[in-house]
Amino acid sequence: MLASLLLFVLLGAPSSPPQGPPAPPQRPAVPAPTPDVIPLKGPLRVFLDCQYECDTEFIRKELTFVDHVRDSQSADIHALVTTENTGGGGWNWKIEFIGQGRFAGHDETVTFTTAQTDSPDDRRRMLLRWLKLGLATHAAIATGHAGIDVSHQAPETAPAAPADDPWNAWVFSLNTNGNLSGEARSSSNSMRFNTSASRVTAAWKFSLNGNWNRSSSSFDISDTETVNSLTRSWSTSALAVKSLGPKFSAAARTTVSGSTFSNYDYNVRVMAGVEYDLFPYAESTRRSLTFSYLAGPAHYNFEEITIFDKLTEFNLEHTLGASLGLRQPWGSVGLQSSFGQHLDDLAKNRFNVYGDADVRLFKGFSFNLYGEYSRIRDQINLRKGGASEEEVLLRQRQLATGFQYYMGFGVTYRFGSIYNNVVNPRFRNF
Predict the structure, then answer these.
(1) Is the dihedral of CA 27, 30, 35, 40 positive or negative?
(2) Structural domains in the chain?
(3) Which of 81, 154, 211, 285 could lock 50 by a disulfide, CB 3.0 to 4.6 Å apart?
(4) pTM
(5) Residue 422 half-sphere exposure, CB side, CA atoms within 13 Å?
(6) In the beta sheet, which residues pair with residue 315?
(7) What does pLDDT average to over the chain?
């Protein structure tokens, strides 16, 4: 499967246009089609293809000079929206207006950014503004009359020079949450705390993350018997990445973590390595194929003695990874795989592969699937001795296994009217 996808990418996938600077957004000049080339067939038909950060109901209500259609094959313009996080915690947006049918070959691309402090309403209105600007010319040509006006508001003063940043591009985040639930014979509660700090520039990327989790449950089996469950976990990590050109990067990563479920009092891993992207990183919103190698030492301190009669262990480990990501007008495909191994005992290893796809096969028909499989031969942390029935049912301790897997799939077929203009929010939650 991976070989087929690689062949498709190398031979068939269209190259993305070069990305321009995010500010100010620019639209490349596109030769305007003429009515004798494009027969007039009424309002412009648009398919909005946006997986994240898009309020589609708002767009349909506000973008009224086009016909919104429910399927890409019915559209004159396929508006493909992709996003990436910026170093300051905001979003970099890219809209590709892909011409189809009577507008085939007349493609345009715009990019813009929204700040971390922008509200969801700010972001959706900025997206709406650029959709209107990108579709205005095509909509006028499709209808054959200039029923659209464009206004311009000149800035009152010249743009100010960027002010000194007292945070030196660092962005911080704190989050905590919890929940309580219960009934006559059972109750549960949990608490979580997460923190992060990051600094992203063109040359360097730094990130620090930490989390702490606690979960407890109580079950009254009978009037005289109560079963209690308590699990805790925590982790911290630090990552530094150095850009080595448009396709290469080097990284160092440290993680320290603990888990009652996994029998870790604490474990420390320090790894360093390189990554290569077959395509330039600038094209990552549409396609990427990366290969990575990391290696380094790991120290484990266990809460209870393991099946290998150890309370501590030190290993040298390495990991090989590959990742494919495609986002095209026909859908999206992702595939990630990794192989990790203990260098002092090659029999202790783990292979993992994850894939997902959301593909439109033909008009009105699409399918999606996702799944993950792990081949496990490195469970050095298992507690010695058998697990009780309570520990198994309440998942209080990790059990021996040679594999793990999960998967899901679905198909969708839509037929009937191609138009998708009307929004009716009444009784939304029923």
Answers:
(1) negative
(2) 19-143 (no CATH), 179-413 (2.40.160)
(3) 81
(4) 0.73
(5) 4
(6) 298
(7) 84
Q: To 5 degrees, how large is the angle CA 48–CA 52–CA 54?
A: 55
Q: Is the separation of the CB atoms in 258 and 266 below 8 Å?
A: yes
Asked whether the beta carbons of 316 and 344 are under 8 A apart, the reply is yes
Instruction: Name the token pair of 388.
Output: 């009780």
Residue with tokens 């300051």: 88
- Judged against a pLDDT cut of 70, whether residue 276 lies above it is answered with yes
Identify whether the C-beta of residue 57 lies closer than 8 Å to the C-beta of residue 67: no
Place of tokens 């062949």: 7
- The answer to whether the beta carbons of residues 111 and 93 sit under 8 Å apart is yes
Which residue in the block uniquely carries the two structure tokens 């549409």? 286
For the residues 23-39, what does the mean pLDDT come to?
A: 46
Q: Which of 376, 382, 375, 357 is nearest to 367 (CA)?
A: 357
Which H or E element spans position 78? Answer: strand 77-85
Q: What is the b/e burial string over 324-356, where b = at least 16 CB atoms within 10 angstroms of the residue's CB?
A: bbbbbbebbbbbbbbebbbeeeeebbbbbbbbb
Q: How confident is the model at residue 139 (pLDDT cuts 50, 70, 90)?
A: confident
Contact 280/246 with Cβ under 8 angstroms?
Answer: yes
User: 248-259 and 67-68: which strand pairing?
Assistant: unpaired
Q: Say how far apart CA 150 and CA 244 lie, in whole Å.
A: 44
Q: How far is CA 319 from the centre of its chain?
A: 22
| Averaged pLDDT for residues 275-292 | 90
Q: Where do we find the tokens 């992203």? A: 200
Residue with tokens 């191609």: 418
Q: What values do phi and psi take at 136, rounded to 5?
A: -60, -50
- The tokens for 218 are 């109580």
ω before 22 within 30° of 0 (cis)?
no
Report DSSP state, residue 72: G
What DSSP designation does 281 have?
G
Q: Give the whole-angstrom CA distance, residue 7 versus residue 358.
A: 19
Distance CA 132, CA 65 (A): 9
Whose CA is closest to 240, among 277, 190, 275, 284?
A: 275
Selection from 264, 267, 268, 269 nearest residue 303 by Cα = 264
